[in-house]
Write a structure and sequence with these properties.
single chain; mainly alpha; 2 domains; elongated
Length: 70
């Protein structure tokens, strides 16, 4: 079904194309299973007086050079 909609969208006039892509996206959201590929364990640290502990995507594994206590 998704392949057919993609093929139709490729040939459709521009005013119809978005509606076909919307159908594709809805099908994928509704039908594709969600599964965890990886779960990383990160410690979580929280204290109101500690500021800028996590400032990057690598979390508390960062150098901590910007951490300060209020």
């Amino acid at each position: 079904m998704v392949d057919r909609l993609f093929a139709e969208a490729a040939k459709a006039p521009s005013e119809q194309r978005q509606a076909l892509y919307d159908q594709v996206q809805k099908l994928l959201v509704d039908e594709v299973p969600v599964l965890w590929l990886l779960e990383m364990e990160f410690p979580t640290v929280f204290r109101c007086s500690v500021k800028d502990l996590v400032t990057t995507a690598i979390g508390v594994n960062d150098a901590g050079k910007n951490v300060w206590k209020q």
